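Risk mitigation, structural track. In case the binding assays with adenosine monophosphate fail to produce interpretable data, a predicted complex structure has been prepared as a fallback.
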Amino acid sequence: MLVLVINSGSSSLKYQVRDVEAGSVLTEGLIEEIGMGNGGEGDGEIIGPRDHAAALELVDAAIHRELGDLTLAAVGHRVVHGGERFSEPVLIDNEVTRAIERLNPLAPLHNPANVLGIRAISRKWPDMPQVAVFDTAFHRTLPEHAWRYAVPDDLYTNHGIRRYGFHGTSHEYVTHRAASVLGLPLEEFDGVIAHLGNGASVTAIQGGRSVDTSMGFTPLEGLVMGTRSGDLDPSILVFLGRAGWSMEDIDSLLNRQSGLRALAGNNDMRSVVEAAESRDARAAMALAVTSYRLAKYIGAYHVAVGGAQAVVFTAGIGENSHQFRELVAERLGALGVELDAGLNSQRSREPRVISSAASAIPVLVVPTDEERAIAEATAAVVTAASIAPPT
Ligand code: AMP
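Fallback model:
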């Protein structure tokens, strides 16, 4: 089954055509600067298409140029916010699209762009089955004591203010693979998954389900990230507001000017690690703050799950930076965690154990693949829908 996976941002559209059974990528690409150009060509370059519909025409042309004639079975969309309604991938119809749109206030940068992508496909291929795969869905199993903030109930009931959590597609995919590396049935797997990319979050897994996660109402809470602060005292916002900062200034400060960028002057972990190795004191401090924050969460989630059977690293930093993994593991001595230096520094695309035989808890690296997970979920939903008896 061939599935087109779409990750639609406000000014970009990332796509992959996947063969679900073979687990392979047939072609992929990225259209950028949507809405910023005039839709033409200049200096030999394609300038940003007018809108998402025009971007989709470029995707269609690129797919046919690369792969010739082919029949797509379905389109799978990464949708950032599924609110409280969506706890699993769903077949998209008009009502689902409107429900995603109603969640716009919770994800003002992302959900409107996802809807633009969905509508562009509906207009171009009206009969194409489309599936929405939500970044929040895996965290719908959080117990109330983990998702509630200690604020008046009105904020939750009337404004939907609670912990939702994100990166769910990745956390779920990695959870399945980690359980299988350990030879455990999913329902018996308790562990801590650290998804460390430009955005970063850590999830507590109990019985194969998410029971707590570090991102909250938005993807700002929790770990120190490339340009996001993660946790801080909310009174700092009040203090800045009183000092004359606008909401936009504060939003930009915490989402775009903070994290590694603020601490080390660079939001790219590779550069920060290199700088620290050349004795750059700011870079070393940035690594200390970032690894300490993650180690604190791992300790907390070890307790939350009643004793983790594994700590799992994934995404850009988690999969590639043996130096960062080492810094985190050094802080986990109290849990009896011990890495094998040789295994930790080996590079591989395969899921693997990097702890020593003496480690009280195995430490794993499990490469994530959100597009693969979205393609598989899309195929499963479409297959189930087509064999379901009419109601
Ligand atoms: P992602 O968002 O999952 O693509 O991850 C992006 C992050 O991974 C960036 O901070 C990169 O610097 C980081 N990254 C990728 N490769 C490496 C590497 N070899 N060493 C350290 N960080 C890396």
